[in-house]
Design a protein that fits this description.
six-stranded mixed beta sheet, OB fold (Dihydrolipoamide Acetyltransferase, E2P), binds magnesium ion, binds zinc ion, Rossmann fold, 21% strand, alpha/beta, 355 residues, binds guanosine-5'-triphosphate
Length: 355
């Protein structure tokens, strides 16, 4: 048992010994949760205490979370008291003005990045989704849908292109229409595993999940003819258990996906560039103007696509910006906490003085 599992199992046992049930968040809607316990969906709410203590959005339960809940007889909703440690977290920068982490899903083993081979196909966007998927701690896998719309020749060209960016991620071409390679995808979702699907609207996420569960459970809608854009059909994240034992998480199409954390995910998604950098003459080479730069010479020799390099630079810059901003946010959060603590202490002292 690894360190995480030991910690998780300990917490789980502790809550269960106090009479709580450990269930999984399947969906959330305006503060109401649907939790999954022994193949049953129950409605649930969080405690006032938890709401009061929450400082940021990530302190609230998210789809995929294991939570300790108190169950009640009759129609009363279960009450969620605690979120158990998260093994993996898929998050992005929230789309608002504030830089805040928005959790898409948690505790997944695989993040499938879905892209349609119609006009949705875009290498640079694929790279961006891959970085976000790698940051989650789960295994990123590329799924290219709608192969039925392309000729053999067109598929070959795209396969070639995708190979230049997918060194660190398995890639599966499939069709939800002809069911081509559907078994390959099914095989990846083992018993007890959780997988999540992300991608632009119209990529085919919900259609694929319907095929996996074998019925038309999720609503799907055609894309716009001219640019293959979807109509943002899925509006909520939802965890669905499969008969085979695994779980899938459907998500709404993302208009944009901002990076959240930095870590080494950008390098992980661009192993070719990371490796080239090792061969530069200077260890602190910026690959802009230095002599003996392996990156520049790879571009000149045609080994490295300049657009891929540009995409790398852009993501790197964005990651650095987020890091500097989020350390400011963390500082502000700490200050707010200290201020609140100071107020609480003052209030206590005042009360004592009155006695
Ligand atoms: N030809 C073809 N069409 C597909 C395939 N997969 C999905 N589609 C179509 O693509 C359209 C969009 O599919 P959805 O499953 O609704 O897309 P989505 O990714 O869930 O979109 P959002 O919920 O908006 O994020 C639908 O009309 C599907 O029938 C495929 O493999 N081949
Ligand atoms: Mg959908
Ligand atoms: Zn260099």
């Amino acid at each position: 048992m690894n360190e995480f599992t030991a910690k998780f199992e300990n917490e789980k046992k502790e809550w269960e010994s106090k009479g709580f049930s450990v269930a999984r968040i399947a969906a959330e809607h305006k503060g109401r949760y649907s939790i999954l316990l022994d193949e049953q969906f129950l409605s649930a709410e969080i405690t006032g205490k938890m709401m009061f203590a929450a400082e940021t959005r990530k302190d609230y339960p998210a789809v995929g979370d294991w939570v300790a809940a108190q169950l009640y007889e009759g129609d009363s909703p279960a009450i969620i008291h605690h979120v158990l440690p998260r093994r993996t977290v898929l998050s992005r920068k929230s789309s608002g003005r504030e830089i805040e982490e928005q959790i898409i899903a948690t505790n997944m083993d695989i993040v499938f990045v879905v892209q349609g081979l119609d006009n949705n196909y875009n290498l640079r966007r694929l790279e961006r989704f891959l970085v976000v998927a790698s940051q989650s701690g789960a295994v990123p896998i590329i799924l290219l849908s709608k192969t039925d719309l392309l000729t053999e020749e067109q598929l070959k060209t795209i396969l070639h292109e995708v190979q230049t960016i997918s060194e660190n991620a398995q890639t599966i071409f499939y069709s939800a229409k002809t069911l081509y390679h559907l078994d390959e995808i099914k095989k990846l979702i083992s018993k007890d595993s959780t997988v999540c699907f992300i991608g632009s609207s119209g990529a085919g996420k919900s259609t694929l999940i319907n095929r996996l569960i074998g019925r038309e459970k999720l609503h799907t809608q055609e894309v716009r003819e001219d640019d293959s854009r979807g109509k943002h059909t899925t509006t909520h994240r939802e965890l669905i258990p499969l008969e085979s034992g695994g779980c899938v998480i459907d998500t709404p199409g993302l208009r944009e996906i901002g990076l959240w954390e930095v870590g080494s995910s950008v390098e992980e998604t661009f192993p070719d560039i990371a490796e080239l950098s090792l061969q530069c003459k200077f260890t602190d080479c910026t690959h802009a103007h230095e002599p003996g730069c392996a990156v520049q010479s790879a571009i000149e020799d045609g080994y490295l696509d300049p657009e891929r390099y540009e995409s790398f630079l852009k993501l790197k810059k964005e990651a650095e910006f987020i890091e500097s901003k989020s350390s400011v946010t963390k500082q502000q959060e700490r200050k707010a906490r200290e201020k609140k603590l100071g107020k609480d202490i003052k209030a206590i002292l005042k009360m004592k003085g009155k006695k």
